[in-house]
Write a structure and sequence with these properties.
With 284 residues, the chain is of the alpha/beta class. The protein has 10 helices and 10 strands.
Length: 284
Amino acid sequence: IQIEGLSMAVYLSLIRENSDAKVVLRAHNIEHLIWQRHQHFEKNPMRKVYLNLQVDRLKEFEKQIFEAVDGIIFITADDEAVYKNNIGENNHTAVACGLNIEEYPVRKSEGETDLTYLASFDWLPNQQGVEWFVKQVWPTIKAKRPETTFKLGGRFMPKSFHDFKQKGIELVGEVEDHRSFIQQGKIALVPLLAGSGMRIKIIENMALSMPIVSTSVGAEGIHYDEGEELLIADNSPDFAREVLDLLADAPARKRLGKKARWRAEQSYLNQTLGKQTINFYAEL
């Protein structure tokens, strides 16, 4: 029996009561790390105290579940390393999330929008990353290249995002076809400051042959050669510079997109990753 994510692990005792099957946790993230990283950027002292409390509770619950299941499948080697170094030695492996490459068409031509970002904003790190980009990075981009356009799409946008319209950002909200939305941009952004596991959106962007500018956290757990398959920047001046340089260099965008697609085909096919998962089950 495979439990998808830590939130489903609350049913572990019920599963044990009704089945003798081996139980494997598919760990989407090291969950307490997400909130631990978020604390660093939290300015409200009361919320910071609350987050401290939640991190401690979540870390303890996570440790209990890791010890109680028969095996763990992490989605990144980075998360697996955190587990090995800090938590325990239960049966474990790392198998990335993958995709069906035929569902992601190679981009034949660039879209008319300069920048796109698509996310679900009921996840706090996505909100935080966009706010950082809009407040710390976007003003520099607009000052140096006033004609730059940016489409922001995704579900559960906070009301506060409506202020972004005054800064020249187009809010799209929930989109019908996430692939075509992403490909409307010349560059796909992943401005994340907190998180764990891997960002599936980066894999999808790669498969769609998009040039990508991301933070290190945004690209965490992804196999890539920096500068060849995506660009990394971890502070606002560097992020703005990477975006502006890439907007000015169409051949570089084409080269990055082509290499990104190659990486998706080499490392993230469901057919290959599924065999790795089955092999792990067979060894339990």
